[in-house]
Design brief:
By secondary structure, the chain is α+β, with helices and mostly antiparallel strands. 21% of the residues lie in helices and 31% in strands. It contains four helices and 15 strands.
Length: 208
């Protein structure tokens, strides 16, 4: 994973960015190392932006997301629309379904395309971390490890990955809110993704 920590809130000029990258074998280790650097060494940074290295980015994606955060102070975490790698290209944004595993872990399901507005933001219960833009106060409120997977009662099987666990913790423990923006769509490199539209048509070639 690559990650930006952003120092300025201005959106009419390029933000002052500090690029921090980590390349350990574990995504979770990468995320926690970089979050620790932010907490311990970069007190003036206002946002953290997680940029996956296997995604295709529009050149204005970060600026568009920063402007959205400026317009919506109620948003603590903002994610773009990201799809799974394979058909039927489920969105990587989720609803908590109100059911729990035997050990009390909440269960989630992908939000269907029909719920996605043609533009603007909508609230979600959890999301993948690719493209996730996090306000600084969210990171400051949490203790390490900030990212970790939730395991079953036997401690062997992953029940919730680190992204969904992070979103669940910040919502339930701190009252923070997670939103997705329909105005930034993110695809995987080398994969043809499609997005169904409200009029029944489809457009693709997010990545080719």
């Amino acid at each position: 994973f690559l990650l930006f920590t952003i120092s300025l809130s201005g959106t009419n000029q390029p933000p002052n960015c500090y690029l921090n990258a980590s390349a350990s074998a574990s995504v979770t280790e990468n995320l926690n190392k970089i979050m620790g650097d932010v907490k311990d060494e970069r007190p003036d940074d206002a946002w953290v932006w997680i940029m996956g290295d296997d995604h295709c980015w529009n050149s204005m994606a970060l600026i568009d997301m920063l402007r959205t955060m400026d317009r919506h102070p109620e948003i603590d975490v903002l994610v773009p629309l990201v799809t799974k790698r394979n058909p039927p290209w489920h969105l990587v944004v989720f609803d908590e379904v109100g059911e729990h595993t035997d050990d009390g872990t909440p269960m989630f399901k992908p939000i269907p395309w029909e719920r996605v507005p043609s533009s603007g933001v909508f609230e979600v219960d959890a999301a993948g971390s690719a493209g996730m833009l996090i306000r600084r106060h969210v990171i400051d409120a949490m203790e390490q490890p900030i990212f970790y997977s939730t395991l079953d009662s036997g401690g062997r099987q992953v029940v919730l990955n680190e992204d969904v666990t992070f979103c669940t913790r910040i919502r339930h423990e701190h009252g923070f809110r997670v939103f997705a923006t329909a105005d930034v769509v993110l695809g995987h490199l080398g994969i043809f993704n499609v997005r169904p539209m409200h009029n029944g048509e489809r457009w693709g070639a997010l990545t080719e």
